[in-house]
Each structure stands twice: as C-alpha cells, then as structure tokens.
Design goal:
20 helices; transmembrane helix; AminoAcid_Transporter; Amino acid/polyamine transporter I; transmembrane; membrane; L-amino acid transmembrane transporter activity; 482 residues; two-stranded antiparallel sheet
C-alpha cells in the first residue's frame, strides 16, 4: 500500500519562515557568560575538597589547581583556533568528524547526547532540588518530591531554550553574574579574615604531602574535571555573532576569570577552615559562610541553586546543538535537526535532551553510569588534538587563522590527555572501564552499520516525521555551507 498519499503537504499546510536556520544571538558578553557558566557549577561551592584530600598538603593543592587551570586554558586556545576555521556547530563532534572519521564522531554523539550530557544535567538539577527542599517545610528528604522538583526544573529550562535562544542566553548571563557575585563575597570574606591575621592552613605549605604517585594523578584528574567545559562554546558556533573574534575572546576571557576565581576561592577556604573542616564539610561554602559572612551566609545556598540552574541551562543549550549537528549530518535521525519555523530554535534536539534527562531520573546511581564512560572523554580529547595537528600540518594548513596557537600547546594537550586516559587504567584498574567502553562500542557498531552506513529507515518513519512537523511547526534547516 502506498502510504505517501495520506501525507499532507507540509509546505502548503505550514507557513514557513523565508529561511529557517539558527540565529546569531550571542555577542561577546553572552558567549563569555556561556563559557564561565559551563565551567563553574556547584563543585566550587560544595566539594572543592577532593584535590586537598588527594594531595595531602595546602601548597600542592593550590599548585594542582593552578596547573589544571593552565591546562584548561591551553585546551581552550586550541578549541578557539578550531572554532575560527570551522564555523559549524557541534564542537568536539564536528572536529572528530572532519579530523578522524565519521564513526568516532558517531560514538561521541551516543556517549554525549544519550548519557554524559543528560546525566550531568540531572546531577546538577538534583543538587538544585536538594537546596530547594531545604527551604520547604518537609520532613526528611522525600525522594519523589526531589525528583518532581528536578523534573519541573528540566521542563522550565526546555521551555525557555525552545522559546528563544536570546532569552536562554540572557539567563546564562544573569546566573553567571549571580554565581560570580557569590564567589566574590566568599573571596572578600577570606581576604578580610587574612587581613585580620587568620591564615589557618595556609602556613603549612607542603606539610602532609602524599607520597603516593597515584594520588597526584587523581588530584589533577579532579581539578581538570572542575575546570573543563568552556570549550562547549564551540557547540553553538552558528549562534555566536562574529565567531572568528568572539569565540577566542570569550574562551580566553572566560577561562582567565575562572582560574583567578578558583584560586582566590580556594585560598579563602584554606585561610579560614582547617584541613579537617574542609575534608569533613558536606558543603564547604556553607561551612565557610557560617564562619565568616554573618547575615550574608544565607546567600550561599541560594548561590548554589543559581549556579546549578545556570550550568544546567548551558548543558541543555550545548548538548542539544550536538544532537542538532549530528541530525543534520545524518548521524542521528534528520528530524533532530529540524528548527521551529517561528522561534528559529532547534526544537527537536532540545526535546531529545529533555527526554534523555528525564530518563536519567530513574537510575539509582547516575554518577556510576557516567563514570563507566567518563574516562572515554579523555580518549575523545586525544582524537580532537590529533585532528587539530592534522588540520594545522596537512588538510587545512593554508586556511587563514584569526588566532594561531604555538604548535607546542596542542602537543602538550595531547600528552596530558594521553596521561588522563591511561592513568585510571593503570592507577586503579577496574572492569567497569573496559565494560563501559566495550558496551558503547558494541552498540555503536550495531547502530552505525544499518542506519548510518547503509542508510536503512524504519517503516512509516517519514510519515511520522511529517505529522510531527505539522504538530510542532518545525522545518528542515538548509544544507550546511561554510
């Protein structure tokens, strides 16, 4: 039976904008706020103690934070160069596809869109929900209420991101300013304490430094995880005004601000709190505020809520753009690249992000699910820096580069990520790493061969897509042209 006769003519039924494509809404302030907001989550408020626990000494702890910041800045500079020569949304996905091949890009999409990004959103919003519940007259910590608040937060972010990229970017700016103000208040409290002669652990220097080589590796791993995320600005290149200038500027300004803020915040914590207090505090910033900020201490829980909500908003924006780019390229169903004809937002990709985030509410231990695949992020970074070297030395060596980093930087970044990939396997070999990687690769092969390589389609899929277009008022984007 020919089912196509029943399919309505979408172009006649739906008034489509003259050119349905993503709009460039983010200027330098919006892009810089996106960088800062993606890096600074709840960690600096709640648990910056992991590095101190691993290093054992204050001086080495601060040194590791500085090294992690410098490495993140070096990585950001490489991404800045990539963002100025490849003006296509998708970030790491796009660079993998162009630099090392479509299959690895497909594996990255499955890992990021369906697990990593969705899990990160849920972890941050569960923290948001815990702090909301602390302000409500409830007994204990009802799990269902916590998940209900998390679901409401997801729906709110999805509605905002679907409605307007400009509104979503304004929220990024506001939440970024909010968390920076809170951190500046913490830094001011620490500065006043130091001026009054309170130094607590700062004078201990390298005393207590761990002799375990693996501890230093774990400390660096933790600090680099906390300072990563700024490169996600390259996932939304097509929505940044004048990307050749604003991408590198936003990364350099944003990461520099983050490094300074992180160093000063940790100095403030260590000047006021003892080592035992830092390691034992469930939320370091709350303990610090209660000790130093007086009436302003109540701002800290609110700052954590703002921080987690802002970082989640950035993850929704960035993660949906990876799905959008993959859909446009055919590495996910093409419908995921469809854009709302009036709002000009990637509605389909945003809805997928919502569905995957909601699904992550059900696993009992989301952190473990992410940890199974987390170390693969370092492997993907290795591939990105190999792609960078390939672009620079061979395939795109003659392309004009508004920013051109010294070749030693991507080489160092490559070596660092090789270390970060190998370290967990050598220092703490666990079957879960092999199991997670093997499962992901197996699923990738099973999906890639029939649906990507052979381009097979499910029966009636086109009919369903057409009805979806009519209901949600979405339309395919134009083919990508650089």
């Amino acid at each position: 039976m020919d089912n196509t006769k029943k399919i309505p003519d979408v172009q006649k039924t739906m008034e489509v904008a003259e050119k349905v494509e993503l709009k460039r809404e983010l200027g330098l302030i919006g892009a810089t706020s996106f960088v800062i907001g993606n890096v600074i989550g709840s960690g600096i408020f709640i648990s910056p103690k992991g590095v101190l626990a691993a290093t054992g000494s204050v001086a080495l702890c601060l040194l590791v934070w500085l090294i992690a910041g410098i490495v993140s800045l070096g990585s950001a500079l490489c991404y800045a160069e990539l963002g100025t020569i490849i003006h296509k949304s998708g970030g790491t996905y796009t660079y993998l596809q162009k630099g090392v091949g479509n299959f690895l890009a497909f594996v990255y999409v499955l890992q990021t869109v369906f697990i990593q990004n969705a899990g990160s959103i849920i972890i941050m919003l569960l923290t948001f929900s815990k702090y909301v519940m602390s302000m409500l007259p409830v007994c204990g910590s009802p799990v269902y209420l916590e998940k209900f608040i998390t679901a409401l937060a997801i729906l709110t972010l999805i509605l905002v991101t679907s409605y307007s990229t400009r509104l979503a970017s304004h929220i990024v700016v506001v939440t970024t300013v909010g968390k920076l103000v809170a951190l500046v208040i913490i830094i001011a409290g620490g500065t006043v304490a130091m001026c009054q002669g309170t130094t607590s652990e700062l004078g201990s220097g390298f005393s207590g430094t761990s002799n375990d080589p693996s501890a230093l590796a774990l400390a660096l791993y933790s600090a680099m995880w906390a300072t990563s995320g700024g490169e996600n600005i390259t996932t939304i290149v097509e929505e940044v005004k004048n990307p050749s200038k604003n991408i590198p500027r936003s990364l350099i300004i944003g990461l520099t601000v983050v490094i300074i803020i992180y160093m000063l915040t940790n100095l403030s914590y260590l000047a006021v709190l003892s080592r035992a207090e830092m390691l034992g505090a469930p939320a370091v910033a709350v303990t610090f505020a209660a000790r130093t900020l007086g009436p302003l201490a109540t701002l800290v829980p609110f700052a954590v809520m703002v921080s987690t909500l802002g970082a989640s908003n950035g993850s929704v924006i960035g993660g949906s753009r990876v799905a959008f780019s993959a859909g446009r390229d055919g590495n996910l169903p093409h419908v995921l690249s469809y854009i709302h004809v009036h709002q000009l937002t990637p509605l389909s990709a945003v809805l997928l992000t919502a569905v995957m985030a909601m699904a992550m509410l059900f696993p009992a231990d989301v952190e473990s699910v992410i940890d199974y695949l987390g170390f693969l992020g370092a492997f993907m970074n290795i591939c990105v820096f190999l792609a960078f070297l390939r672009f620079r030395l061979w395939t795109m060596k003659d392309v004009k580069r508004p920013i051109k980093v010294p070749l030693v930087i991507p080489i160092l970044m490559l070596l660092v990520n090789v270390y970060l990939f190998i370290a967990p396997l050598v220092i703490s070999p666990q079957l879960k790493y092999v199991f997670g990687a093997a499962t992901l690769l197996g699923i990738s092969v099973l999906l890639y061969l029939p649906f990507i390589h052979l381009r097979l389609k499910l029966p009636y899929f086109d009919t369903l897509v057409t009805w979806y277009q009519l209901i949600c008022q979405v339309s395919p984007p134009p083919d990508w042209q650089d």
